[in-house]
Specification:
Elements: E1 9-16, H1 20-37, E2 42-46, H2 51-57, H3 63-70, E3 74-79, H4 92-100, E4 105-111, H5 124-127, E5 132-138, E6 150-152, E7 155-157, H6 164-180, E8 186-191, H7 197-210, E9 217-222, H8 223-232, E10 239-242, H9 244-255, E11 265-269, E12 275-279, H10 296-308, H11 313-326, E13 331-332, E14 342-343, H12 345-360
Parallel strand pairs: 1-2, 1-3, 3-12, 5-10, 8-9, 8-10, 13-14
Antiparallel strand pairs: 4-5, 4-11, 6-7, 11-12
Helix pairs in contact: 1-10, 1-12, 6-7, 8-9, 10-11, 11-12
This protein binds nicotinamide-adenine-dinucleotide, 3-isopropylmalic acid and manganese (II) ion.
Nicotinamide-adenine-dinucleotide binds next to loops.
């Protein structure tokens, strides 16, 4: 691995649309800073995907980009989606990538830094001892299994499909995560077993697999009630495992507990293959081009990349610490605070890179 075996880390970069390129630039800045201060070396290879490249080439995921990704160690992804294209035209690219690379885990950590309790929309007593959960979203099956669905005249249908193999592997991943980390030694399963056959199989497998992890506390919730618990007692959530569409929805709700969708990272992970790292937010056309997007989600996605794809756990921790330190000195407008400098996207990235440089050079 780069820095360890002397090989240079190859990172394919999908800038994407809207604020995608703006936040990806800051993610790359962090990786470049690491390369300047440590033996970890990195090279970037552009792999365009999304709405912009669709307009230029007629494909939102050109074959040449896929080849670049296949030749990489990891993928850094911004966001895709353009409001002037038909629904799904750009977005299909990310789903194809998840399927193509079998990135069946979507890891979405939601951690509220102590210094940011003021931006959490909850009253202090609901934040309690603090928010630090990891949402594990199934990422290749469910309603996303056969992308597209069908429209027949006045009727439309999508198929929710789960396989036992697909359910077991994501549940096992969640339990292993809980087992490896005493701070997250509890798994909450979120389903809709009171109505959906897929969820009934999910719940049954959850309890079966739980038997192999007697030291891990478990609980299950229906997704509707879980949405309530998420804002009522968010501090009780540790590892939360759920199916694809529920995970998409509850992770945006959870992310806003951090005061902005711009704060939350995600890893689309194939533990034995090529993984993709991105902020959880979209292309945010309402703020694109203004230089005000929050790049912390993209930077924390780089943190996940460092630990998951490159096993550089110490550097990954340094990135998290640098983000925390930087947020004590300035914030982007979405999480602004009176008396503290309000920073542009690139200024926020510079501040994190500066903190990181100082820490790595010690
Ligand atoms: P969005 O996540 O782009 O934006 C939702 C809200 O959050 C907006 O008000 C936006 O300004 C704000 N926001 C998002 N990221 C921010 C950041 N970094 N800093 C500050 N504020 C931020 O969701 P949307 O508006 O529903 O979708 C826009 C487009 O993005 C659509 O085309 C959608 O399909 C696509 N999308 C793509 C991805 C992806 O690429 N992974 C994810 C979600 C949505
Ligand atoms: C996400 C997004 C995607 C999803 C869209 C853009 C296809 O919302 O990554 O959270 O639904 O998974
Ligand atoms: Mn989403």
């Amino acid at each position: 691995m780069a820095g360890k075996g002397g090989r240079i880390a190859r990172v394919a970069v999908v800038e994407g649309d809207g604020i995608g390129p703006e936040v990806v630039r800051e993610g790359k800045k962090v990786l470049t800073t690491i390369a300047a201060c440590t033996p970890f070396q990195v090279e970037f290879h552009d792999a365009p995907a999304g709405g912009g490249v669709y307009k230029r080439t007629g494909s939102s995921l050109p074959e040449s980009s896929l080849k670049t990704m296949e030749a990489s160690d990891a993928i850094l992804f911004g966001a895709i989606g353009l409001p002037d294209l038909p629904q799904g035209t750009a977005e299909i690219a990310i789903l194809k990538m998840r399927q193509h690379f079998d990135q069946y885990v979507n890891l979405r950590p939601v951690k509220l830094f102590d210094s940011l309790r003021d931006v959490c929309p909850l009253k202090d007593r609901f934040i309690g001892p603090g928010i630090d959960m990891i949402i594990v979203r199934e990422n290749t099956e469910g309603l996303y299994a056969k992308i597209g669905g069908q429209i027949h005249g006045d009727a439309a249908a999508n198929l929710m499909l789960y396989t036992k193999v697909g359910v077991d592997r994501i549940l096992e991943y969640a339990f292993e995560l809980a087992k490896a980390d005493p701070a997250h030694a509890k798994v909450t399963s979120v389903d809709k077993a009171n109505i959906l056959a897929c969820s009934q199989m999910w719940r049954q497998r959850f309890h079966e697999i739980a038997k192999h992890y007697p030291d891990i506390e478990t609980e299950d919730f229906y997704v509707d009630a879980f949405c309530q618990w998420l804002i009522r007692k968010p501090y009780e959530c540790k590892v939360v495992v759920t199916e694809n569409m529920f995970g998409d929805i509850v992770s945006d709700e959870a992310a806003y507990l951090l005061g902005s969708l711009g704060m939350a990272p995600s890893g689309n992970i194939n533990p034995k293959g090529i993984s993709m790292y991105e902020p959880i937010h979209g292309s945010a056309p309402d703020i694109a081009g203004k230089g005000i997007a929050n790049p912390i989600g993209a930077i924390l996605a780089v943190k996940i990349m460092l630990s998951e794809s490159f096993k550089e756990n110490a550097i990954a921790k340094a990135v998290g610490d640098a983000v925390e330190a930087a947020l004590l000195k300035g914030r982007t407008q979405d999480i602004a605070k009176d008396g503290m400098p309000t920073l542009s996207t690139s200024e926020m990235g510079d501040l994190v890179a500066g903190e990181l440089r100082a820490a790595l050079k010690k």
